[in-house]
Design brief:
This protein is α+β, with helices and mostly antiparallel strands. It contains ten helices and eleven strands. The strands form three sheets. It has a six-stranded antiparallel sheet, sandwiched between helices.
């Protein structure tokens, strides 16, 4: 049997169709990259990127008949990928003014178990949009970390999507809340699709609970749930160490936000592996509105014996609190304890 006819058959009916299909899929991605990242004239972003996309499709169609056209398409797509890879946060956001909630990145100085943290957010809200940008500094003894709580906040009635935060409790009664957030330039709104194309930074917000939690419950009307985890003080210390070191790194080397791989929940996944190396991931880290259910099933959330997840979630909801800021952290936990007592 001659091998040449077989090779031609495979090339025509297998290799070339695969190349064309891959090229079309890459063209869709390149359309987004051209629209969001190419230096196009203002007002022409959509039209120019669409023409580029149509050109790639035309080359893919012609590639069924002439391999040279496939090569041209591949060269254009590789050039787009190369241009996109050159886009760094330093270049993309040089001179940018950030929206007020993310105007300052935390400044962390670590000296053994001593952490000196600047730019801790402690905003004073009158409404969601009307607030005083108050930042404070604090020194924390990391050997005094006693607990870590998980906060899940849903907005607009969405169940599959939520924002996740962690709060670390210290022996002296203080709590330090940490939230991985999208850092938005002035005039920009967050979108799922732009989040794939290096349009935002990711920022670790270090704040007091009465800022991060109260903003969501009292002023945005979100449904926020606060869960005590089963992490030991040693595990809580490990997690906080990791987050503070990440904050140090992000201050030196900013990173892009990504809607899937580097968002508020998936960026916390490595912390789960630090306390459970066997954790391999779960789709509920992407559909992060159910991440609390996942952590309950994995045994991370503290609950009463025989208590179902639905029961735990019901008593973990944080209601708006009409208390002084200094009493806030105690008040939201006292409410959960009272709810737990009422279910016995």
């Amino acid at each position: 049997m001659r091998i040449e006819p077989l090779l031609k058959l495979l090339h025509r009916h297998l290799l070339r169709p695969l190349c064309v299909t891959a090229g079309i899929l890459a063209a869709v991605w390149c359309w987004g990259a051209a629209y969001y990242t190419f230096p196009l004239p203002e007002g022409w972003e959509f039209s120019a990127s669409l023409l580029f996309f149509l050109l790639l499709l035309a080359l893919a169609a012609g590639g069924w008949f002439r391999g040279t056209l496939l090569a041209v398409m591949a060269a254009l797509e590789l050039a787009t990928i190369f241009f996109f890879a050159l886009r760094t946060p330093e270049r993309a956001f040089e001179g940018v003014r950030w929206q007020r909630p993310w105007a300052r990145a935390p400044h962390v100085e670590l000296d053994g178990a001593r952490a000196k943290i600047g730019n801790i957010r402690n905003f004073r809200y009158r409404t969601e949009e009307d607030f005083d940008s108050v930042y404070i500094s604090g020194t924390y003894d990391l050997d005094q970390v006693q607990s870590v709580d998980l906060a899940i906040s849903h907005w607009d009635g969405l169940e599959a999507v939520a924002h996740t935060m962690l709060s670390f409790g210290f022996r002296d009664g203080r709590h330090l809340a940490i939230s991985m957030e999208t850092r938005l330039p002035e005039g920009e709104e967050q979108g799922f699709l732009p989040g794939f194309y290096k349009q935002y930074e990711i920022l670790i917000v270090i704040a007091l609970e009465e800022d991060l939690f109260r903003l969501r419950t009292d002023f945005r009307g979100e449904e926020l749930y606060l869960y005590r985890t089963n992490a030991t003080p040693e595990q809580a210390r490990t997690m906080l160490d990791s987050l503070l070191n990440r904050a140090v790194k992000l201050e030196r080397e900013p990173e892009f936000y990504n809607s899937i791989t580097e968002n508020c929940t998936t960026s916390l996944a490595p912390l789960l592996r630090e306390i459970n190396p066997s954790f391999e991931g779960d789709i509920r880290l992407l559909l992060n509105g159910r991440s609390d259910e996942l952590l309950y099933e994995l045994g991370y959330l503290r609950h009463r014996e025989g208590e179902s997840f639905a029961e735990l979630k019901r008593r973990s909801r944080v209601a708006p609190q009409g208390v002084a800021p200094a009493e806030y952290s105690h008040a939201i936990r006292a409410g959960a304890k009272a709810a737990a007592a009422g279910t016995r």
